[in-house]
Amino acid sequence: QLQLQESGPGLVKPSETLSLTCTVSGGPMSSSNYYWGWVRQTPGKGLEWIGSIYSGGSTYYNPSLKSPVTISLDTSRNQFSLKLYSVTAADTAVYYCARPRALSGNFDSWGQGTLVTVSS
Amino acid sequence: QSVLTQPPSVSAAPGQKVTISCSGSNSNIGPNHVSWYQQVPGAAPKLLIYDNIKRPSGIPDRFSGSKSGTSATLGITGLQTGDEADYYCGTWDGRLSAAVFGTGTKVTVL
Question: Where does the pLDDT of residue A26 fall: very low under 50, low under 70, confident under 90, or very high at 90 and above?
Fold first, then answer.
């Protein structure tokens, strides 16, 4: 059974870079034609899709995000990562890694989530 | 601000039925499949319904989904105390080029 687990700092200073990694277990990422993505949740804005990456490397980001973002893949480690640049307090949220079925609203597997607070 | 609108809360007694609506537009629900998620406090969302009406393995048939035009509905029959949670709809929005989620509905079992 597929399992996803987020890891990374729980506190980031304003204007710095938020970096998270998602480790996938239960099957090799390299042999699958899947998408992998990040979703965050704040009390005020609910669930927000950040972006997704296809196993071939193509990336898709939410155009409404105010902070620049990069999602990358490391199939040798069965991991994918999120970098959110120049963060502000508005980026404080619980961040989930998840597996979307293509570019859709269907996310069939989720990590447990990790709280990231942006504060000095 | 979400482009998919849900009622903030619904409630019913154990054993009864509730329905949760998800209202969208011709750029999201209209042309695309809808998914539904259950989120209990402190946990990640869990997929309940995908492709409008399909249930993943392990999801009881008490949960059902439907779609008509630019709206979708989640139904829960035989309500149980364990069904108390927040429920979200989700789909793709072609105009925004983004996956979008609903505002969320809290289900309370009276």
Answer: confident
